[in-house]
């Protein structure tokens, strides 16, 4: 008895296998550009043009919430995939619109990469300030 998949033609099988990761949904996705300095620079530029008017320069918050501390900080509860989804789909009934139509997936990941790098910098700066306090 032949296994069922042997009856599938190779091109069809390839199509199925290639479609699987796409069907997986954004929830389990990881940032393909994580830690990439060049991507972070592109993300900074994109952030300046698309997000800064509400989230302030460098994600510090303003009309919109800050995006680099707490749950968004290093090791925080909010994953890269969650951030990607929020940017792509927006938040219904808030000023946060979806950017899935105007930014490519790569551009959204670049913005995520920038904000993650920014959160690391903010954390490091806080640690530096704490170290500067004389402990006597
Ligand atoms: C017109 C103003 C506006 C613009 C432009 C905007 N946002 Fe927002 N954003 C908001 C507001 C307001 C919220 C809070 C929505 C809510 O109440 O949940 C938000 C929420 C978010 C959140 C979720 C924050 C959280 O803690 O839940 C992320 C992530 C985010 N924005 C990223 C971005 C990025 C990245 C861009 C640019 C591509 C962008 N936003 C552009 C107003 C804006």
TrEMBL record:
Keywords: Heme, Iron, Metal-binding, Signal
Signal peptide residues on this chain, from the entry's feature table: 1-26
InterPro entries hit by this protein: Cyt_c-like_dom, Cyt_c-like_dom_sf, Cytochrome_c-type_DH
Highest taxon above the source species: Bacteria
Residue ranges of every copy of the Cytochrome c domain listed in the record: 38-119
Coiled coil: none
UniProt cross-references to PANTHER family, sorted A to Z: BLL4482 PROTEIN, BLL4482 PROTEIN-RELATED
The protein, known as: C-type cytochrome
Native species: Azohydromonas lata
């Amino acid at each position: 008895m032949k296994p069922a998949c042997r009856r599938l033609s190779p091109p069809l099988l390839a199509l199925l296998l290639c479609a699987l990761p796409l069907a997986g949904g954004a929830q389990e996705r990881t940032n393909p550009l994580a830690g990439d300095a060049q991507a972070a620079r592109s993300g900074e530029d994109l952030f300046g043009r698309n997000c800064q008017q509400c989230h302030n320069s460098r994600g510090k918050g303003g009309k919109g919430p800050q995006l680099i501390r707490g749950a968004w900080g290093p090791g925080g509860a909010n994953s890269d995939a969650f951030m990607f989804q929020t940017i792509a789909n927006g938040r219904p009934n808030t000023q946060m619109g979806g950017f899935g139509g105007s930014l490519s997936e790569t551009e959204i990941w670049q913005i995520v990469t920038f904000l993650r790098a920014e959160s690391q910098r903010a954390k490091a700066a806080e640690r530096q300030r704490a170290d500067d306090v004389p402990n006597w």
